[in-house]
Amino acid sequence: MIITIDGPAAAGKGTLAASLAKKYNLAYFDTGMVYRAVGLEMLLNGYDLSDNKKAEAFAENLTFPKMMELSKNPEFRSLNGSRAASAVAAMPKVREALLQMQQNFSHNPVFADGSKADGAIYDGRDTGTVICPHADIKFFVTASPEVRAMRRFKEYQEKGQAANYEEVLEQTIARDKNDYARAGSQPAADAIHFDTSDLSIDEVFNQVCAIIEKKQAAV
Ligand code: C5P
Fold first, then answer.
1. What's the CA-to-centroid distance between 32 and ligand 1, angstroms?
2. The pTM is what?
């Protein structure tokens, strides 16, 4: 079974995807990581974020183990890291270079320890449209920019990273604009939509599980 969860930053996709992966024993691919890895390589090597050629070279050479290694860097999920990810994700050749790696995972899904899984949950922006258009179930999860910015702001605070709410809100809106301008980032026509602005994590999780189980029972 392949499930995709797409939607804007901080909509609750990651938390939902990780909980679903655990409950249904599925492998989990957070596809934002591929762009964060390339963006971080650009930052670590001091390259300008508009340098397409350098970003393409990093994308072409990215492997799963390399991505996991880079994810340990504190900048991976920082405000700067997010900005860098969004910048390189806007480059069509970078996206093209990272496509195969993301699609391969659906044919050979593995857990974090490398053992084989029977299916996968993807989260990202284009997983139900470009990466896995034939997914069994597709969700599109969103929330208002203010609610999402507040969630991210709290995450930064919890990690002790410097941030102020206004700046995070500004970046949330800028990233939405950047992320949704490109093809494939719009919801898949067959995606089930969820607005999590006024729902708790548990409420979303329970509603999504009910849909998955209904779908499984119908197969
Ligand atoms: O989901 P996350 O915030 O980690 O994603 C980081 C960035 O990677 C996003 O802002 C977006 O620009 C890009 N991204 C993408 N397509 C995906 C996943 C993430 O363009 N499938």
1. 4
2. 0.93
